Amino acid sequence: MQFSTKIFSQADLRSSKLLKSSLSTLLSQNTDCLVLAYAKTDLDDFSGGKAAKVKSGLLSELDRLLGGSITHANVVGDLDHQQASTCILRAEKSWAASGVKAKRVLLVGLGDLSLANACNLHAYSKIAKAALKNLSGGSIQNAIWFTPSFSLGHQADFLAEEVRLTIQYAGDQAYRFGIRQPAMKFKAKDKADPFTQLTFAGNEACAKDLKAAVAEGMAIVEGMNLAKDLGNLPPNICTPTYLGKAAQGLTKKAGLKVEVLGLKQIQALGMGSFLSVAKGSDTPPQFIVMRHQGGKAGEAPIVLVGKGITFDTGGISLKPGEAMDEMKYDMCGAASVIGTMYATALMKLKKNVIGIVPTCENMPSGAATRPGDIVKSMSGQTIEILNTDAEGRLILCDALTYVERFKPQAVIDVATLTGACVIALGHVHSGLFSEDEGLVNALTKAGKASLDTVWRLPLDAAYHEQLKSNFADVANIGGRPAGSVTAACFLSRFTEKYKWAHLDIAGTAWKSGAAKGSTGRPVPLLVNYLLEQK
Ligand code: BES
Ligand code: MN
Ligand code: ZN
Questions:
Q1: Residue minimizing CA distance to atom 3 of ligand 1
Q2: 186 and 269 share a domain?
Q3: 312, 376, 435, 465: which has the fewest Cβ within 10 Å?
Q4: Are residues 266 and 381 in the same domain?
């Protein structure tokens, strides 16, 4: 999928004169489809099914340029004042008379802009999705999106968010695993969407913001696509070694500095907790360090840490068989960190960002860790492993100790950590845990701006009681009550030296059922967060 911008000096809707010249310029472009949004008030010009005398709305002007096509569409009942309703007009002979070269015009309803809920990003996302759906899967290959027509009665401050979101959704719509990984689907081939080019048209006044937003949106899509690929790949291919190589590949692709530590180096660091998980597998663990040096040399970095369990059987505390295949997604935290680092490098973000991925498999074997084993973490704290299926926290805790060396400005870990988080929040919000109000606010805001949302859950001292062990400093499970909270509490014991937030993405990283597949979340959230830290 390709995205671009096109700036027209007259592309403006602020006066009827500008509206007229702007529409005729747009219609004169060679495009498969021109996408225009209209408000309920534009349609009111056509009430009663007939074009009223002299009206000046967008649809009336368009009706004149298109030789009555709007009137006609309205008469047959194809135009609706409902938000996100759509109508496609196809080229007729009469269009040529006014120099129209566009093959189609897609009209999208903004709805009644006087209603309170009509003008927020949620409303915009519904509208954009409806429009994109119409562009997909047919004979449309390219389209021009007339950005100013979509502004929901608000000003330019939403423009960047709207454009990024549109690109994010277009990327989602175009993603096909079988095309990106042709070796995986032998007979049943995915068909590529013919719709591959989207151009955002705007005017001089918004040119700079528009171009920046398109570049950011494209980076988000690249990051999400990579995260989706890594998540969807089968666990016999996407091993810890594969993840290490994928990260290393980003040096050439985007200029990231990547270092991958192997078993010996992990042992030398004293990561006894991480190694206790890796022990049961024949596949060696890897510890990936990715750096984007976009800020000043001495500037404290933002550190992202992703859980990279390439398959979670539960270990000796074996999981039940049902849907166990989905535990290939237990590296989606890692995939989102790698994807975000890729996006960050593509955007040439002026910040120092470090991505850390501890990665291994959680397997049962003669060498596997037993329930009851006590291991020593890199921090020196001993851990009684009461359930080998609570392995995510065991690999993350050593990574969280490792990152102290960077003297980070903030650390955010991302993990498919607990089934309990799926029960608490479903598949809508990722769980957010932090005692730092600044981080909570920034991440909540970034979630709202990308519609990759989070919901805060508690992390207070009272819950730490559940992690007491009679034989070690801490137990790795806290029982069934508040399972996501006690998992976060466990991690918090290793994060005392810096500002920290934990994202539990167990419910949001992938979809099950017929639409089974990685979502690429929370790449949009993390990129939006990083963009705001400028
Ligand atoms: N990777 C799982 C969490 C998970 C399970 C995510 C299902 C998404 C869907 C994690 O390693 C795990 O097994 N957690 C256990 C913890 C328990 C043993 C305390 C869980 O959630 O059951
Ligand atoms: Mn597990
Ligand atoms: Zn797991």
A1: 418
A2: no
A3: 465
A4: yes
- Ligand 3 centroid to residue 502 C-alpha, Å: 15
Provide the domain limits for residue 172. 2-224
For ligand 1, say whether the CB of 477 is within 6 Å of any of its atoms. yes
Residue ending a domain, choose from 224, 251, 273: 224
Which among 418, 474, 477, 511 is the best mutation to test ligand 1's pocket, defined by most ligand atoms within 8 Å of the CB? 418
Could you write out the DSSP letters of every residue in 306-324?
A: E-EEEEE--TTSPPPSTTG
Residue with the larger pLDDT of the pair 87 and 45: 87
How far, in Å, from the CA of 391 to the mean position of ligand 3?
A: 6
The predicted structure's pLDDT at residue 49: 47
Domain edge (last residue) among 191, 224, 257: 224
Same domain, 197 and 267: no
For the CA atoms of 429, 434, 437, 439, what is the dihedral angle to 10 degrees?
Answer: -70
Which residues are catalytically annotated? Answer: 319, 393
Looking up residue 249, the CATH number of its domain turns out to be 3.40.630.10
What residues have CB less than 8 Å from 157, skipping those under 6 apart? none
- CA of 459 relative to ligand 2 center, distance in Å: 21
Supply the CATH number for residue 185's domain: 3.40.220.10
Closest ligand 1 atom to 416 CA: 6
- How much is the mean pLDDT over the chain? 95
If asked whether residues 357 and 478 sit together in one domain, one would say yes
What is the residue with the minimal CA distance to atom 9 of ligand 1?
A: 419
Task: Kindly state if the Cβ of 278 falls inside 6 Å of ligand 1.
Answer: no
Nearest CA to ligand 1 atom 22: 419
| C-beta 147 within 6 A of ligand 1 | no
Quote the CA–CA distance of 477 and 493 in Å, as a whole number.
13
Instruction: Convert the pLDDT of each residue in 281-314 to its tens digit.
Output: 999 999 999 999 999 999 999 999 999 999 999 9
**Cα Rg for the chain, rounded, in angstroms?**
26
Domain count, the chain: 2
pLDDT digits (tens, 9 = 90+) for 154-165: 655 688 999 999
Q: In what order do the strands lie in the sheet with 474-475?
A: 374-376, 382-384, 474-475
pLDDT over threshold 70, residue 54: no
DSSP state of 89: E
386-416 pLDDT, tens digit per residue, is: 999 999 999 999 999 999 999 999 999 999 9
Q: How confident is the model at residue 211 (pLDDT cuts 50, 70, 90)?
A: very high
Give me the residue label for tokens 């998992």.
Answer: 487
Whole-number Å distance, alpha carbon 389 to ligand 1 midpoint, is: 7
pLDDT confidence of residue 152: 67
